[in-house]
Amino acid sequence: MAEFEFDGDKAKESFQKIVKNIRLIVVVVVVLAAVISTFFQVGAEEVGVVTRLGAYNRTLESGLNFKIPFVESVTKVPVERQQKQEFGFRTTSAGVQSTFTKRGAEGESLMLTGDLNLADVEWVVQYRIDNPYNFLFKVRNPEETLRDISESGMRQIVGDRTVNEVLTVGRAEIAGKLKVLIQEISIDYELGIRVEQVVLQDVTPPEPVRGAFNAVNEAQQEKETLINQAKSEYNKVIPKARGQAEETIQKAEGYATERVNNSQGEVARFNELYTEYIKAPGVTKTRLYLETMQEVVPKLGDKIITDEEGGNVLPLLNMATQSGKKINQ
Question: Quick one: which of 155, 194, 193, 146 has its CA closest to 177?
Fold first, then answer.
C-alpha cells in the first residue's frame, strides 16, 4: 500500500512538470508568434493597409514595418503593378510565344451590333490600383465589379455601331471610348482603380458566318484595289493629255502671233514701198525688178543668159567653163 502511494506521488509530480513545460512552451510560442507578426516587409510595388480590430488605421509604404500583434492586421496592395483583365479569352501560358484559349469565355465576347449582326470581340483592360483604401473598403469585390463594368460598357459601345465599323475602321475609337467610360464609372463607384489602356485583341465574325464575312471583305478589298488602279491610270493619262492640250494651244497661239506679226511687217513694208512708189514710180519699179531678179536667179542653178541677137558665144562659154562663173549679158 505504501509503495502504491509512492508511485502515485511520483506520477503526480511528473504530470505537474509536464504541465509546467507545456505552459512554458505555449508562452514561448506565443511570444515568438507575437515577435514574428510584429514586423513585416512591404514590397517595392506595394503598400500595406493596416486595420485595427477590423477598422482602417493607416497605410504603410514599402520597406520594413511593424504592427501591434493580434490586434492589427495588414493587407498588401500592389499599387505600382499593372494588372489586366481578359475578356473573350484566357492566357494559358505567357512568354515569347503565349498561348490562349476561349474555353469558358465565349459568352463574354459574343455581342450584338447596331445593325443586328453578331461580332466576336476580344479585349484586354489594363489598370492599376491608385487608391488602396477605396479598393479595399468602398466596394465589395472591386475586380469583379470592374469586369462587369467593362463588359457592360463594351456591349453598349458596340451596340451603337455597325458590324463593319466594329470589324474595321472603328476599333481604335471603340477602345478609346470604352477606356473613358470604364474610368468614369470607376470614379463614381469609388473603386480606387485607374484604367491605363484598353486593347482590342481580336475582332472577328462569329465562327458559323466567318467564311461569308471573309468573302465580303475580300470583295471589298478587291473593289478598293480596282478603284486605286483606276485612279492611278487616271492620274497618268489625264495630266499627260492636259499637258499635250496646253502645249498644242501654246503652239497655236505662238503660230498665230508669228503670222500676225509677219503680216503686220509685210503691211508696213508694203506701205513704205507704196509711199516711195508714189514719189518715183519708175525708179521704184526698176529697184523692185532688180531685187526680185537678185533673189530668184540664184535659185535657178547654173544658167547662161545671152542676147537673142548675139553672135559668137563660144569664147564666152570657154571663159565660163574655166572660171566656173555665170555670165550675164
Answer: 155
Grid cell listed for 85:
483583365
Q: DSSP string of 145-168?
A: HHHHHHHHHHHHHHTTS-HHHHHT
How far apart CA 106 and CA 175 sit, in angstroms, is 20
325: cell is 562663173
Of these ranges, 132-136, 253-257, 325-329, the one predicted with the greatest mean pLDDT is: 132-136
Amino acid at 207: E
Greater confidence (131 vs 15) lies with: 131
- Integer Cα distance of 135 and 193 in angstroms: 7
Single-letter code of the amino acid located at 53 = L
Helix (H) or strand (E) holding 181, with range, is: helix 171-189
Task: Spell out the SS3 assignment of 85-114.
Answer: EEECCEEEECCCCCEEECCCCHHHHEEECC
Cβ-based neighbour number of residue 88 at 10 Å: 23
pLDDT (mean) for 84-99: 85
Share of the chain above pLDDT 70, in %: 85
Q: Residue 227 pLDDT more than 60?
A: yes
54: left (phi over 0), alpha (psi -120 to 50) or beta: left
Residue type, 63: G
User: Who's near 55: CB < 8 A, 6+ residues apart?
Assistant: none
- pTM score: 0.59
Q: Does pLDDT of 238 surpass 50?
A: yes
Helix axes 171-189, 142-158, angle to 10 degrees: 140
Tell me how far the alpha carbon of residue 243 is from its chain's centroid: 37
Alpha-carbon span 216 to 221, nearest angstrom? 9
